[in-house]
Amino acid sequence: MKQTILKYIFAVTVLSSAASCSKYLEVTPKQSIDAATALENDEDLNALMIGGYSILGRGSMYGTNFLMLPELLGGDDICTWRGTFTSFREVYNKTMTSINEEARRTWVNAYDGINTANLALANLDKIEDADLRTQIEGEAYFMRGILHFELVRYYAKQYVAATASTDLGVVIKTTPTNNEEDAFKILPRNTVAQVYTQVINDLVKATTLLPDENDYRASKYTAYAFLSRVYLQQGDYTKARDAASEVIESGLFVPNASVSAVFSNKNTKESIFEIQQTDQNNAGTANDGMATFYASLPGIGRADVRVNAGLPDDLYEAADLRKTEWYYIGTGARAGNTYCSKWKSYSQNLPVIRILEMYLTRAEANRRLNTTVGATPAQDLAMVINPVRTNTTAPANPTLDDILQERSRELLFEGLRIHELKRLRLPTGDYEWNDNSLVFPIPQREVDATNGVISQNPGY
Q1: What b-and-e string marks burial along 81-100, b requiring 16 or more CB atoms within 10 Å of the CB?
Q2: CB half-sphere exposure, 415, CA atoms < 13 A
């Protein structure tokens, strides 16, 4: 087993990093192992996929950036960045340049994960166990789909039906980088519409392959949950509603009675997908990690993300338990400042998508469509706010504004802020939803390495 893991690590380290176009500038003459040779059997492919989940948990991915950067970029009315990291400050201030480190590492690591998925798909014939083959195929489509989705949300304009077929998205990568020859292949950016089509195709495929339950890995309903997000970001409310209903009606996920339980316990029934962390294996305790930047507790956290004063009072009813369970006042040198307690332990699991989001999505879609598929908007909203969970009561006939307000209350500081503002066409501070400053720069090294075939975004 040790030999297999070492072989896998060598292959992926040397080869899958070539998913970044910077490889064109960094080819060093040396012997390397072809990925097709490195991946030989069930054990190899399973180890490869485990490595893919590890990539998802990196600080550049869901370990920090995919959960924190949307809050910073759309944070004008909710928080301030108080830390010393220039790259994060530039995100918050909308002053990124083409060499911003968060833009660079997020791009590189996302394509690293995509290449891992492509390697798995290209080597499925090496797997003898039929059930394992189907599972890994589903996981690979899932991983490739969500990473292309995250990339297009950060590095391209918001999906708008009228312009999506001409707006530049990101590079769609569906073949693996097996060797250095593959690394020299230059691909231009696809359109936003093409990327969304690829994402949806991958996730739909994943729903047909993944098992209903898959321990701590992606399942059929994880794929449906992300599909619901994709469709909602597009404004396809019928499909967003129906995908959310698939998750809800599975009966596998239920809201916890305590609003804090999903953040203080691992793998509760409320969580559809979360990043697994331990004391020894986590996104970081100094330079990365959600607790690192959000917490202001004795021995834990840098308190770099400070919640705007008065936000909990303005956002929640006085009796709402989320006001006191999810926010707290700092002590000592940080006395009087407000912080978010969703992220307070270095070793906590990181919920990426929760069942409450599915109820809110279905409620919003049904309200917009004037339908009651699965439940009425009032019934779905009552799953989110009720006397047991929040110590408040849902409105008997919620308006669209009621539902959108509840999305903000429930999902704040969980990595959706700027994406929500963009899809709803709302500003953040003085920046309109479609401002160029709210789109990440393509890393300059990628533009340079391809002689401009991968073109830069406006404003950079």
Answers
A1: bbbeeebbbbbbebebebeb
A2: 21
Signed CA dihedral, 341, 351, 59, 445: sign only? negative
Question: Dihedrals φ, ψ of 300, to 5°?
Answer: -135, 120
DSSP 28: -
Tokens of 103: 């833009």
Residue 211, pLDDT score: 98
Kindly list the strands in the beta sheet with 79-81, ordered across the sheet, starting from the edge strand earlier in the chain: 79-81, 305-307, 338-340, 327-329
What per-residue confidence (pLDDT) applies to 180?
A: 77
Task: Please give the pLDDT value at position 121.
Answer: 98
What predicted TM-score, i.e. pTM, was given to this entire model? 0.93
pLDDT value of residue 221: 98
CA angle centred on 201, ends 197 and 203, rounded to 5°: 120
Contacts 24+ apart (CB under 8 A), 276-283: 276/53, 276/57, 276/216, 276/349, 277/57, 277/346, 277/347, 277/348, 277/349, 277/350, 278/347, 279/346, 279/347, 282/63, 282/346, 282/347, 283/57, 283/58, 283/59, 283/63, 283/64, 283/350
Task: Write the pLDDT tens digit of every residue in 10-22.
Answer: 344 434 443 333 3
* 438/428 Cα distance (integer angstroms): 9
Token output for 212? 């209903």
Contact at 8 Å (CB) between 172 and 96? no
Polymer length of the chain: 460
CA neighbor of 43 nearest in space, from 6, 13, 15, 1: 1
Closest CA to 345 of 287, 298, 386: 298
What is the 8-class DSSP label of residue 300? B
CB 289 within 8 A of CB 59: yes
Q: What is the pLDDT of residues 207-222, one digit of tens each?
A: 999 999 999 999 999 9
pLDDT tens-digit map of 354-381: 999 999 999 999 999 999 999 999 999 9
